Amino acid sequence: MSPDSAQTAVVVVNYGASSLVAQNLAPLEAERPDALIVLVDSFSDAAERQRAAALAAGRGWEFVAPDGNVGFGGGCDLGAARALERGATRILLLNPDARLEPGALAVLESEVEADPMVLVAPRIERPDGSVWSVGSDLYLADGRIRSVRARSRFPGAQRAFWLSGACLLLSSTLWTRIDGFRGQYFLYWEDVDFSWRVVAAGGRLAVRGDALAVHAEGGTQGEDAGRQSAGEPKSDTYYAYNIRNRLVFARLNLPDEAVRRWRRLPLSLRIAWEVLLQGGRRQLLHRPGLLFLALRAVRAGRRFAVSPTNRGQKGENSSR
After folding, report:
1. How far is CA 257 from the centre of its chain?
2. Which residue, among 27, 36, 87, has the nearest Cα to 60 in the 3D structure?
């Protein structure tokens, strides 16, 4: 099938990981030569741009090359726009460090064919077979994120289920309805926001346990509150955006009373500390600057949360 007639487009946003992209897409490409693959290279450096361009050209993929680093959501928006131009009716968003197992895409496609207003994810496991994500819960009282396994410990709590952006399939109809990702996040929490807006638009979220993806945890979000392996040090970017974007989400989606509650300084500082501890206490001995980074992220989030111009906008994805 020619690219212009492809029904499913696979959108992958690369940032310095073209070797992973080549490795993880090879089985899917062999299984589904009818799929349109769109590689978006969010700029990291000139050498990587050349490697990504050569990979796409060699495999016959669509290639999108923004001038800067547009973040995860911004890259997905660019890739989806190219896919829609080529006539795709379904869009699979796939992390560079994730691999769909044989038959998984067909299972996800069957779900979307049955309901064009569904956002569906596979069961996502780590390479050792442990669960990486079957969806997570956002607790609306304070903005904490917990595994679905924690529900029994918080009976009666108001929560919103959401799906990790590591692997998602949706129809072009649903993508157009919610207008892609919002640009205010750049990294982290954009999948929480995306899931929230799918439900707000009348869609639904689903996890197909009979479809499997394997995720090698290359720095993206995971299932538990840590959203990566507990105790493993994370990047400055991870900490800064996870702390800040909790309040970005609140401002963009919640009523003023909830924003004020989430924004309270003692709560914001406590949750910022919890985010830092996802990387373990020992890292603070070697990276004391993380404390100042967390304070700056709290301040940035609290400022965003009170800005009158930030309510419910689409936003722009800025380069870094």
Report:
1. 27
2. 36
Tokens of 281: 């206490």
* Helix-helix angle 236-253:256-263, to 10 degrees: 150
pTM above 0.85, yes or no: yes
Q: CA nearest 161: which of 130, 203, 124?
A: 203
- Of 51, 24, 50, 19, whose CA–CA distance to 37 is shortest? 24
Question: Hey, what are 215's tokens?
Answer: 């995720």
Distance of alpha carbon 25 from alpha carbon 81, whole angstroms? 20
pLDDT in tens, 271-305: 999 999 999 999 999 999 999 999 999 999 999 99
> How large a percentage of the chain has pLDDT more than 90?
88
Which two structure tokens, joined as six digits, stand for 141? 């009282």
Distance CA 168, CA 94 (A): 7
From CA 97, how far away is CA 318, in angstroms rounded? 23
Among 208, 19, 189, smallest CA distance to 115 is for 208
Q: pLDDT of 131-140, one tens digit each?
A: 999 999 999 9
